[in-house]
Specification:
The chain is mainly alpha-helical. It has 14 helices and no strands. The N and C termini lie far apart (49 Å).
Length: 309
């Protein structure tokens, strides 16, 4: 006697298997490619480039953010290194805004989930707002809101290479990159699976009419609401993108989805707490305003222009 599962369960299970397979392969492929790239552009070199206080540093900072796979919280330790290297304040802020939003993993997941056109709009908006925010905050003197202790270089204990005895064998760099890729993948796997699971449940069980009514194309208020909701959630982009894909399938507007992704990937309560160790409150407020502005602007631009047609 065969057992027939309800259609909603079948839909949810099918979506889970599809997204899990597709996004896993994509993550591994992109992460490995980034690892190869970082062999030739190590963090120390990026830090040296961003230390230049010149106009072109803003564009370089934004593009550097686009090739470094940092989430919002993992950007903070690198930011401290830039401060201690006396990097240009404006380019440093541009990197802070762009790095978690434009890293290759997010762009790749975005492209495979929503298509090239949506991804291009997202990329250009995040890039432009990151540069403009860095320029403006530098021009109006927000560098004074960096805490003095953020510039202090911590003492380290040096040790000659002879301390460890015989030198360890040199590992093949391609194997080393794969091991790093696999380690990163295991780190994000729980978030990825949670996002896929929630998205699959939404796809299988959430009434389409409900999503369309409160977050559809006709409800522009859903865009700022999605942006505000995204920040305290701290959903990694690896999780929020499959979740958002399910919401889109149920009728959620792409404008609201963009706002949700930018809000959740660009800022979080955890990141704000970490930033408090570096910045004074006016800079924290400015940071949140920039992320919310970016999220809402992207959502409305897509919803109210031919781009969203």
């Amino acid at each position: 006697m065969s057992i027939t599962l309800p259609t909603s369960i079948q839909d949810a299970a099918g979506m889970f298997l599809f997204l899990a397979t597709e996004l896993t392969l994509l993550f591994l492929l992109i992460s490995y490619g980034v690892g190869v790239l970082q062999e030739y552009i190590p963090p120390a070199k990026i830090q040296a480039i961003l230390s230049a206080r010149k106009g072109k540093g803003y564009i370089v900072a934004a593009l550097m953010g686009a090739i470094t796979p940092f989430c919002s919280c993992s950007t903070i330790p690198f930011l401290k290194g830039l401060l201690r290297a006396r990097a240009g304040f404006g380019p440093m802020l541009t990197f802070l805004f762009s790095s978690p939003l434009l890293n290759p993993v997010i762009i790749g997941l975005f492209a495979i989930t929503f298509g090239i056109k949506v991804t291009l709009v997202y990329f250009l908006i995040a890039l432009m707002v990151s540069v403009v925010a860095g320029v403006v905050l530098d021009m109006i003197g927000f560098e004074k809101h960096v805490k003095e202790e953020a510039y202090v270089i911590p003492e380290t204990t040096s040790c000659a290479s002879s301390c460890s005895g015989a030198s360890a064998p040199v590992e093949n760099k391609w194997v080393r990159i794969w091991k790093s890729t696999w380690k990163d993948f295991k780190g994000v796997l729980p978030y990825l699976l949670i996002g896929i699971a929630i998205g699959s449940m939404i796809y299988g069980f959430m009434p389409t009419d409900l999503v369309s009514e409160y977050a559809g194309q006709d409800n522009l208020l859903s865009i700022p609401i999605a942006a505000v909701i995204g920040i305290p959630l701290y959903i990694r982009a690896e999780a929020v993108i499959p979740l958002s894909a399910a919401l889109v399938a149920k009728g959620m507007s792409l404008g609201a989805v963009m706002a949700l992704i930018i809000g959740s990937a660009g800022a979080s309560l955890t990141e704000v707490i970490l930033l408090r160790s570096i910045f004074k409150m006016p800079m924290i407020i400015a940071f949140l305003v920039v992320i919310l502005t970016m999220a809402v602007s992207a959502g409305f631009l897509y919803a109210l222009t031919p781009l969203g047609a």
